[in-house]
Queue: 2 jobs
Job 1
Amino acid sequence: MAAKDKYHEHVKEALIKDGWEITHDPYYLDLGKVKYEIDLGAEKLIGATKENQKILVEVKSFLQESIVNEHHKVVGQYINYRIHLRKSDMERIAFLAITTKAYKRLQSLPPLLESFEECNIKLIIVDIEKRTIQSWIK
């Protein structure tokens, strides 16, 4: 079992406050020779349609000294998850959860945020102190 990110529980609490039911902690994706542990699986009932929206959330703190190195690892990890989800669990949408502080740090390095956009990485920005979701960037 992989070590949980420093802010794992904070993000989990923020999702619950936002009306999400945590269904997996972690979510296991088994593709035979390749196995992944994605931090969280969650569902939310959409009132009007009575359908569940299903997401997977990878939590990253961006606390390492080299934000560029951490960014490269995160982008590759997210893309691999998304590729393999298409084959096994097409209902779920992958998100990357980061703190408001990490997002501000990334904003100071526009090429890093541009690569998130280019790679269609969906973000959840979490206020760690309040344990609430600040914004969803799709």
Job 2
Amino acid sequence: MQNEQPVRRIPLSIIVPTAAVILAVGGGGAWLGWQNLTSTKTPNIENTSPSPKSIQPATQEKIEVYWLNDVDGKIQLVPTSIQLENTSNQQDILETAFNRLLAGPVDKSVTSTIPKNTKLRHISVKSDGIYIDLSQDFTSGGGSASMTGRLAQILYTATSLDPGAKVWINVEGKPLETLGGEGIVVDQPMTRKDFEENFEF
């Protein structure tokens, strides 16, 4: 049997201080490394300027106002797009569009059969459709073609944002039942589909 070599033991008084130094150095290095890593990932909020993408542009909405044009002896509806800025809701957009419509066309290549003195008394957008109240001037003058044209201008401009919407037309607060001396019957409410099925220029 071979002789076993005696095991040398390091005194505890040397192990403890040495371990403490190693842990301190290792921990400090790890802490410095973590600080450097987080400092490179965390931006300086005070010195960070907003990127161009974070700047929101002014709100814009487009709506179409409808005019009339004689093409080869046939009257056609002609939409003209207008840009509206800083609009808040559908009702405000429609009110602006109607004020443009009732002011008459700027482009001389198109026309309007709506009498010049016609005023928008009120417009409102409800869950069941769009309600328009016009002044008495809307019903004055013109034959059946003129009446059909002005009815189309009102209806199509009102439904520019929602082509399937229903429209109620009032004159001086009362539902419009007939229009013009020839008595064009106006069913309420009216949609674009109703107009196309029951009227022609």
